[in-house]
Amino acid sequence: MKPNQKTPIAYIETNEQRRLNDARELGVPWKKWGPYLSERQWGTVREDYSQDGNAWNYFSHDQSRARAYRWGEDGLAGISDDKQQLCFAMALWNGRDPILKERLFGLTNSEGNHGEDVKEYYFYLDSTPTHSYMKYLYKYPQQEFPYLDLVETNGRRSRDELEYELLDTGVFDTDHYFDVFVEYAKADPEDILIRVTVYNRGPEKAEFHLLPTLWFRNTWSWQEGAHRPELRQAEPGAILASHAELGLRTLYCDGNPELLFTENETNANRLWGQPNQSPYVKDAFHNYVIFSEQDAVNPAKAGTKAAAHYRFEVPANGSQVVRLRLRAKASANAFADFEQIFTARLAEADEFYERITSRSLSDDERRVHRQSLAGMLWSKQYYYFDLDKWLDEHQAHPLTKQAHNNVRNAEWFHMLNSEIISMPDKWEYPWYAAWDLAFHTLALALVDFDFAKEQLLLMLRSLYSHPNGQIPAYEWNFSDVNPPVHAWATLFLFNVEKNLGRVDLRFLETSFQGLMLNFNWWVNRKDPQGRNVFAGGFLGLDNIGVFDRSAQLPTGGHLDQADGTAWMAFYCQNMLEIALVLTEHDSRYEEVAYRFLEHFVWIAYAMDRIGDHHDEMWDKTDGFFYDLLHFPNGDSMRLKVRSMVGLLPLCATTVLEPGLAASHPRLLELIALFRQRHPELLKHIAPADNKFVGYADRRLLSICNKEKIERVLAYMLDENEFLSPYGIRSLSHYHLERPFVFNLNGQEFKVQYLPAESNTGMFGGNSNWRGPIWMPVNGLLIRALLNLYQFYGDDFKVECPTGSGNYMTLFEVAKEIGHRLTSIFLRDASGNRPVYGGTKKFQEDPHWRDYILFYEYFHGDNGAGIGASHQTGWTGLIARVIDLFARGTAADWLEASKGELAARMTREQVAG
């Protein structure tokens, strides 16, 4: 291989881009401190040491204020270093709550009528990629927080009823609440300024308690002889932190507040009636502030947890500001340049986003774009999980202990996760999900290419992926199977960066080696009979199937999955393209490239073999792809559910640029031999109408030929089927009045269109793929349409919407879908945002209406946000969609080579 090229990207640097470059090229630790605290550590698998594996009940929200965590920390609007050794976050008290507000509250999976759900209002408003500037908003009621009401009322509701939300309790009706804005600005990598602005939105003055809290993650209780760090009062208004690895640093607190100290140790007496190891415990500040227990805190002003106690009155419709500074260097006057630095960092954040945002966007589109990327950056979290230790502590290590069947993830004892990872949602999903992560990187690359690439490589590292090649799914079951999208994301990032002038072959080849192992795992485990037809289980689509596709089928037999098989065709295409790039630098990859091409052909053939066999996934009569159920007696039937499962084969499409013959003679020689040996198979490789060369001499690889594309798109673009005003539904609206029903031994299995929440408990019941709109698959469908447009050009048009008489090119169809997705978040003609449905407060109140939440999925008919409210993760793809059609015209797509347009767009972003 040639040496990795480090050609710098040519553009005028912003100050923030300079920090990113210094971090990459000089090792300046601008990203050492960031929003790396979780928003929920309780109720996670890592903290579960129960006998039955019930993580939600073993470590509850009620226990969290008094019980030390083993594997991580959580907090409100918090930050930490990149190993989460020292943490900082807010604690609040309104003078009425029974506990301090130290962390977000939500319902567990069994408490919510649609599974777990956070019951708070908070917003990620801004962040630069180095976290040199960040802004967060939390809305805190002045009335007593309705903890019990939320639990009891949701507990009484069925799955067919709406969820009972915090706004429904009435605590915000009269505007008696505080807006707590928390901002961070870095003077240098080890000098962090914190500004907390508390607004009283109510008509009367109100008292407020603010406790900015500094503490060490408890690393000393779990290992004998481990170093114990210390916090102590250095002087009035200053807390000195001493740590063996971090060294010394001081938290300066403006205004000389009272400093409180305790230990980050479990209050065993409160939880279990057992003696405490120390008189000063984790929940000491609750007892001191709320119950005036003076002896709860350490009078020696030392410990491992400390807080500055501010108590002030906020005037009606007025505000109060608190300033703090956490820095490694001692300072005689920590606040002399405070406002100057904040002003500069905010201006630099504005400069950065102005540079990367298309000038053609409206103010509202800019707002959505910037807040979506801020959410991506705030959703980073330090994730620590040593399975070797965890299994040993459970007495379930398969190599040293007697195995326990009820202890999860025993086969993953090799894993040691200890990195900053992009999370789907730091409250509802405070653990990584492999296929989510691949989508995250597409949006993250808009602001931080290096972090995006690191995230993709992480899942392929030996301390993450299984020795057999499987990529870990998520901590509830690392052995579950997610769609194989890492190769596609890897190729996308490489192509964009290459066309910007930096060819990172080391990244591509390192990824390819790990992906080869994973590809072989898929072939060996999910197609054990070698039929080129794949299963895979739920494959991220939760309840989309007639049955739970990850469980044993009630019918016996097995399932051939149209989506699983399409994913593998897609995987073959991506691996082929990567191998072709590597072949340009090492000819040995040419035969590897051919292997993936051949495998793709066999998969395409398996989905629709020649003749009338009735056991293929393609239904010629219906013009749609279905899962195929095989019974134990050898019979089979198509499960005729019109769902995203049947649309995903469209995504298995890729365009090869001209010049293939001249560049890869050995590959063409092998293709010619294959044609000679298997002429009938070529009829299943698009295009099958003898037009093997498309626009600009491009070649197309696709499961779907032109006829199949037209027939599948007729469903997808039908507003009575898949096409919603807000994107593509996951299940056809057709099934509202005509549900698919399968009867077995008196039991009915039914799939009906459900545009909002799920009405079953399948996969926890907190997500629904039977109707709502999901951003990641919509993004893949847009990609497929643009690829097909690059091949077919302007001559190929389809009716959109179906039955309208209006014909569009595939580029125009892609743009139309992108417009519908974007409209979820933008104000409509009446000034409302569809994402907030009929919630009057969010639609009309000036202190709510411009703060955007990026939900997990969206109502199939009205676009309202559903599910996890802060899953900016893959919903952050909306930033990429906004960019795509703000900058790229049809002519751009038609003329640009692969990666070139995206690179051109990114170059325009960074060059302004």
Précis, in short:
With 912 residues, the chain is of the alpha+beta class.
What does this structure look like?
This protein has 912 residues and is α+β, with helices and mostly antiparallel strands. The strands form 11 sheets. Strands 6-7-8-9-17-13-12-11-15 form a 9-stranded antiparallel sheet. It has a 6-stranded antiparallel sheet with strand order 1-2-3-10-16-14, with helices on one face. Strands 20-23-24 form a 3-stranded antiparallel sheet. Helix 13 packs antiparallel against helix 14 and helix 21 packs across helix 24.
What is the total tally of β strands?
Answer: 34
- The global form is globular
Strand content: 15-25%
| Most strands sheet | 9 strands, antiparallel
Uncertain regions: pLDDT < 50 for 5+ in a row? 1-10, 907-912
Structural class by SSE content:
alpha+beta
- Secondary structure: helix percent: 25-40%
What is the end-to-end distance?
Answer: 35 Å
Cα-atom Rg, whole angstroms? 28 Å
Average pLDDT score: 92
> Which sequence of strands runs across the widest sheet?
6-7-8-9-17-13-12-11-15
Number of helices: 26
